[in-house]
Amino acid sequence: MSTTNEQQQRPAFKGLNWYREDYFSFFIPMDWQKVQPQAGRQGVIFSPPTDDTHTLYAVDVVDLGTKITSDDLPYLSTGFLDGIKNLPNRKIETKGEKVVGKQIHLEAKYTFEEDGETRKRWVRVFYDDTRQVTVTAQGKTVEAYEYWLPMFFEAMMTVKVHHAVPDSPLS
Q1: Helix/strand/coil for 44
Q2: Distance CA 152, CA 121 (A)
Q3: Is 25 exposed, middle or buried (0-12, 13-18, 19+ CB in 10 A)?
Q4: I want to staple 16 with a disulfide (CB 3.0 to 4.6 A). Which of 27, 69, 122, 125 is the partner?
Q5: Is 75 strand, coil or helix?
């Protein structure tokens, strides 16, 4: 059976692992490599099986020290977008915000320049209780982002934010 050029331009799923920590969980391709975040940071970084260290899927958790409520949405959204607007040559493609129960969700997809290359990011930020959980899918280039998008999509859409390490993906 021959494959089309388009099929050859997508990574092959080999399976997914369920990754979980105290405040978040998600499914990630089983052949992606786990990288420890910088000292003092809570979260995780995964990268595809290549030498490209700028294409990644990362989760960062910060305790803000104050309880976040839906009343904070306008301020959080403005700060989130202002941060993106400070990036060099940024172009915001999509943005969104919503309140789900007691959580605030912010989201944006955008490009920006770094080290002479145009990178593409998809960022989802969850505010839960006193924590900010930032989830980032980034391609070193727009082409790298598009190539890995099926894998990014799986991880981004299976993210759950919670208060303790869950026993199963269904909890």
Answers
A1: strand
A2: 10
A3: buried
A4: 27
A5: helix
Question: How many Å apart are CA 29 and CA 35, to the nearest integer?
Answer: 14
Token duo for residue 17: 């692992």
Cβ atoms 78, 95 nearer than 8 A:
no
* pLDDT band, very low/low/confident/very high, at 6 (cuts 50, 70, 90): very low
Looking at residue 85, the DSSP 8-state letter turns out to be: H
Look-up of token digits 């099986």? 49
Look at residue 170 and tell me whether its pLDDT is greater than 80.
no
146 phi and psi angles, rounded to 5 deg: -65, -40
* pLDDT value of position 8: 54
How far lies 139's CA from each of 14, 91, 93, 98, 119, in Å? 20, 15, 15, 25, 6
Q: Going along the chain, which residue ranges are E strands?
A: 16-20, 24-29, 33-35, 42-47, 56-63, 91-100, 103-114, 117-128, 131-139, 160-161
In angstroms, how far is CA 53 from the centroid of its own chain?
15
CA–CA gap between residue 28 and residue 47 (Å, rounded): 10
